[in-house]
Amino acid sequence: MDSKRLEKVARLIQKDLGEILQMEAVALFEGAMITVTKVRVSADLSVARVYVSIFALKGKSTQEIFKLLEEKNTLIKMKLAQRVRNQLRVIPQLSFFIDDSLDYLEKIDNLLKS
Predict the structure, then answer these.
(1) Which residues touch 88 (CB under 8 Å, ≥6 apart)?
(2) Where are the domains of the chain?
(3) Which of 15, 55, 91, 110 has CB 3.0 to 4.6 Å from 81, enough for a Cys bridge?
(4) Are the CB atoms for 37 and 31 separated by under 8 Å?
């Protein structure tokens, strides 16, 4: 499959998932801010690897919010399907991963400063 097509699908999923997670944050994730940083789609469009950055609030840890995110996977996929049903024939299976690149950059920055 054409890589431009994969990139377009990945951008579409990233944009729509970001909006879904932003609107549903209070109800589903106890107000935590979840940002979709990157989406990688398999060549057959069956799996989407979604990288998220989580800013937890109300005394919750990032891991607790991530566990809630994984538990709500089917609900999120259903909401995504409603949004992209006219653009995609098959909605990919969503696999969530924590994107810790910002933490890594901060650690490198601190090491360089010291």
Answers:
(1) 9, 12, 45
(2) 3-113
(3) 91
(4) no
**Cβ neighbours of 76 (radius 10 Å):** 19
Specify the DSSP class assigned to residue 34.
E
For the domain covering 3-113, report its CATH number. 3.30.300.20
pLDDT tens sequence for the chain (114 residues): 468 999 999 999 999 999 999 888 888 887 788 899 999 999 999 999 999 998 877 778 888 889 989 999 999 999 999 999 889 888 999 999 998 877 777 788 888 888
Give CA separation, 102 vs 53, 107, 109, in Å: 9, 9, 10
pTM reported for the whole predicted model: 0.83
Q: Residues near 46 by Cβ (< 8 Å), separated by ≥ 6?
A: 90, 92, 93
